[in-house]
Amino acid sequence: MASVVLSEAEKVYIMHGVQEDLRVDGRGCEDYRSAEVETDVVSNTSGSARVKLGHTDILVGVKAEMGTPKLEKPDEGYLEFFVDCSANATPEFEGRGGEELGTEIANTLYRVFSSESSVDLKSLCINPREHCWVLYVDVLLLECGGNLFDAISIAVKAALFNTRIPKVRVLEDEEGSKEIELSDDPYDCIRLNVDDVPCIVTLSKIGYRHVVDATPQEEACSLASLLISVTSKGALTSMKKMGRGSLDPESIFEMMETGKRVGKSLHIALQKILDEEESLGTSRQKVGFLG
Amino acid sequence: MAAITMRLPVARGVVGPGVPRGGEKHLVAPGDTITTDTGYMRGHGTYVEEEKLIASVAGTVERVNKLVCVKALKTRFNGEVGDVVVGRITEVQQKRWKVETNSRLDSVLLLSSMNLPGGELRRRSAEDELAMRNYLQEGDLISAEVQSVFSDGALSLHTRSLKYGKLGQGVLVQVSPSLVKRQKTHFHNLPCGASVILGNNGFIWIYPTPQKKDEEAGGFTTNLEPVSLSDREVISRLRNCIVALVTQKLMLFDTSILYCYEASLPHQIKDILKPEVMEEIVLETRQRLLDLEG
């Protein structure tokens, strides 16, 4: 994570502010920065989304490819995550500098989506034991402005919502060999149900209270943070503690409750914007990267 | 109660009058021809090719008698002697500190250019050198003045006045150096209840107005007492106003910040950063500034 250096007095100022529920930019402890979400920004993917949360800029592309199902789950497809920390975000990511952070984020995403109910993997199966859809989710970090995990999970959910997987038909030959036929109509496709896809909420502990959506300055003041993934119904699918400080079990419980509450509002806001974007249809003015 | 707002992106531009006041400005991009007249001397940001004067940076053309130069719009801080800067200590070396001031090279603050606590005037000894870290550590913020410029372009800073020195509690906002207007003084005590230091290098420091004059020279003891909630609200609002002005590319000086603050009072502090509210506030500020001039 690109870290900023702060003086002792600045850290004390931030900590006292959090105590009084007034952060440096006027937000409360449970407020998110204003986010911008746009889907379908990359044309050669099955689905894509771009999320801007303050200064954090994330681009996610989903590609659907045909593959063989895993041995232990022969009638399901699967998701593969890859995170690329671009050197655009911060000079620390030059060369192999961003690899460590990238693997950490990718492993967190695997864990978040490890729950069986997150994505309906059975709908991705074409032929049990032989063919299935593999969704390659590629995350690109364009700018680091604090709170990476939340922004990435919002972008992944938006990209999965936008994903269009072409419909395939399995044809049986006289000899018994199976042939896969792709539908001719480019608009004939199946879409994923993202109602149960979880979103990550990061709660950073600053002083005696915790904040949601920390800026890089606030992240420099917090010694420990809790990462929880929440579904739209408020169910927790995974939890991870980050940072070198310690957390009291009481505060972990409080943070979990805050996370569930904030997570539910996050899902409602995100679903509303995705539905709004979809209802605009082809009349939507695409902004992309030049806006 | 969590407040989460999401929006669809809209291509946004800068609001306000299209033609700048004070005549047309000659804007150039790298590679644009400035003039084909060979009688001019070329200054910074230009080069000569095939008897034409061509710009090498993107900015405005400045003409002083026979000297033509191009002043870049977005650039690192190019310090002049006498500029007030706000910087962050990056390294503690022998007899000097390296200060980050958003310029091409880290600036230098020599131990001899720093005031001793209590305002003593004496030669710096070996004990002073060993105790350097007690004065300023990595990460500390200071306000200083540019004393001189080294031959490689690095700035030499000094804090030989009571108003400069280590900064205490407050908020730092980093903006582009070209947006800070050059004025007589850069230390302002705003009537709304906070003070602001407009560093020429683009580092803006907002802090609560000190109640009484500190006896210590240069503020060696930092006051770590909690700042009151009313002061915090003023500081947060000022910080958001400055971010709004910078996003709309308005010059920063005490009057523009004050007008923006007053225009933002009807809104909640966290709403100032919403694009529609930002445009509305900056439009009102621009209007008031135009009325002030006209």
UniProtKB/TrEMBL annotation, chain A:
InterPro entries: ExoRNase_PH_dom1, ExoRNase_PH_dom2, ExoRNase_PH_dom2_sf, Exosome_comp_Rrp42_subfam, PNPase/RNase_PH_dom_sf, Ribosomal_Su5_D2-typ_SF. Keywords: Acetylation, Cytoplasm, Exosome, Nucleus, RNA-binding, rRNA processing. Residues 32-166, 196-261 form the Exoribonuclease phosphorolytic domain. GO terms for biological process: exonucleolytic trimming to generate mature 3'-end of 5.8S rRNA from tricistronic rRNA transcript (SSU-rRNA, 5.8S rRNA, LSU-rRNA); nuclear mRNA surveillance; nuclear polyadenylation-dependent rRNA catabolic process; rRNA catabolic process; TRAMP-dependent tRNA surveillance pathway; U1 snRNA 3'-end processing; U4 snRNA 3'-end processing; U5 snRNA 3'-end processing. Transmembrane segments: none annotated. Component of the RNA exosome core complex (Exo-9), composed of EXOSC1, EXOSC2, EXOSC3, EXOSC4, EXOSC5, EXOSC6, EXOSC7, EXOSC8 and EXOSC9; within the complex interacts with EXOSC2 and EXOSC4. The catalytically inactive RNA exosome core complex (Exo-9) associates with the catalytic subunit EXOSC10/RRP6. Exo-9 may associate with DIS3 to form the nucleolar exosome complex, or DIS3L to form the cytoplasmic exosome complex. Exo-9 is formed by a hexameric base ring consisting of the heterodimers EXOSC4-EXOSC9, EXOSC5-EXOSC8 and EXOSC6-EXOSC7, and a cap ring consisting of EXOSC1, EXOSC2 and EXOSC3. This is Exosome component 7.
TrEMBL record, chain B:
It comes from the Eukaryota. Gene3D superfamilies: 2.40.50.100, Nucleic acid-binding proteins. GO terms for cellular component: cytoplasmic exosome (RNase complex); nuclear exosome (RNase complex); nucleolus. Component of the RNA exosome core complex (Exo-9), composed of EXOSC1, EXOSC2, EXOSC3, EXOSC4, EXOSC5, EXOSC6, EXOSC7, EXOSC8 and EXOSC9; within the complex interacts with EXOSC4 and EXOSC7. The catalytically inactive RNA exosome core complex (Exo-9) associates with the catalytic subunit EXOSC10/RRP6. Exo-9 may associate with DIS3 to form the nucleolar exosome complex, or DIS3L to form the cytoplasmic exosome complex. Exo-9 is formed by a hexameric base ring consisting of the heterodimers EXOSC4-EXOSC9, EXOSC5-EXOSC8 and EXOSC6-EXOSC7, and a cap ring consisting of EXOSC1, EXOSC2 and EXOSC3. PANTHER family: EXOSOME COMPLEX COMPONENT RRP4, PNAS-3 RELATED. InterPro entries: Exosome_cplx_N_dom, Exosome_RNA_bind1/RRP40/RRP4, KH_dom_type_1, KH_dom_type_1_sf, NA-bd_OB-fold, S1_RRP4. Residues 170-210 form the K Homology domain. This is Exosome complex component RRP4. The keyword RNA-binding applies. Its main location: cytoplasm. The keyword Cytoplasm applies. Residues 27-64 form the Exosome complex component N-terminal domain. Residues 76-148 form the RRP4 S1 domain.
